[in-house]
């Protein structure tokens, strides 16, 4: 399964290669517009926003590009990202990816949601560059995103079929698991 996932992501990695290297100092300046929801350090300030500090840089580039280009929609993010250039996206991704995310897992890693651990890890720290960290996200955020994948509101070649096979109870269990993981994001200047 891991080999199939990595093969499927091959084209996405190549697409991300077109971006110039991000400048963290420029990304920090741009992050001022992100701080209300995501914080300057990337630790979300509101429960419906994800933590983005310490996320994989490729993932951040992919998501910001999707919001900008309209392949992923959100009432706030679509507006914010619409005017970002490729360089600004690379700069923001470099800024937020450059922070350190530290997790504390108090449960048995063997109890982690089986469908999630190959990409997101038992502790919620992404194991592949195109997967987000899930550690410490609110259960309402994870629940909402999984249901969006399941009902087709969000589409991803990996997540859509996984979520399609999940019941509400399984979605809630995965959301609760990752919400219970302790997360600290350290702002790295």
Explain how this protein is built.
This protein is mostly helical. The chain has one domain: Orthogonal Bundle (Cytochrome Bc1 Complex, Chain D, domain 2). Helix content is about 50%, strand content about 5%. It is built from 10 helices and 2 strands, in the order ααααααβααααβ. The protein has helices spanning about 1-15, 25-30, 35-40, 55-70, 75-80, 85-95, 115-120, 140-150, 160-165, 170-180, and strands at about 100-105, 180-185. Strands 1-2 form a two-stranded antiparallel sheet. Helix 4 (about 55-70) runs antiparallel to helix 6 (about 85-95) and helix 8 (about 140-150) runs antiparallel to helix 10. The longest helix has 15 residues, at about 1-15. About 40% of the residues are buried.
Considering DSSP H and I runs of 4 or more, what fraction of the residues is helical?
Answer: 40-55%
Bin the strand percentage.
5-15%
Q: How widely separated are the two ends?
A: 38 Å
Q: Outline, from the CA principal axes?
A: globular
Strand numbers in spatial order across the main sheet: 1-2
Write the layout of secondary structure elements.
Blueprint: H1 2-16, H2 24-30, H3 35-38, H4 57-69, H5 77-81, H6 86-97, E1 100-104, H7 117-120, H8 139-150, H9 159-164, H10 168-179, E2 182-186
Antiparallel strand pairs: 1-2
Helix pairs in contact: 2-6, 4-6, 8-10
Name the features:
Cytochrome Bc1 Complex, Chain D, domain 2, two-stranded antiparallel ribbon, 10 helices
């Amino acid at each position: 399964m891991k080999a199939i996932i990595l093969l499927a992501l091959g084209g996405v990695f190549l697409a991300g290669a077109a971006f110039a290297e991000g400048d963290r100092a420029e990304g920090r300046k741009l992050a001022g517009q992100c701080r209300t929801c995501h914080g300057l350090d990337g630790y979300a300030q509101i429960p419906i926003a994800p933590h983005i500090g310490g996320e994989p840089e490729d993932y951040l580039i992919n998501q910001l590009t999707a919001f900008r280009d309209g392949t992923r929609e959100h009432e706030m993010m679509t507006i914010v990202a619409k005017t970002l250039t490729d360089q600004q996206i690379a700069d923001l991704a470099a800024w937020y990816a450059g922070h350190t995310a530290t997790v504390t897992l108090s449960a048995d890693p063997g109890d982690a949601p089986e469908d999630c651990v190959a990409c997101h890890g038992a502790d919620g720290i992404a194991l592949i560059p195109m997967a987000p960290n899930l550690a410490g996200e609110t259960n309402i955020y994870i629940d909402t995103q999984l249901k969006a994948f399941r009902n087709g509101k969000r589409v991803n070649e990996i997540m859509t079929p996984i979520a399609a096979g999940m019941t509400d109870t399984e979605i809630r269990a995965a959301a609760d698991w990752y919400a219970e993981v302790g997360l600290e994001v350290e702002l790295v200047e």
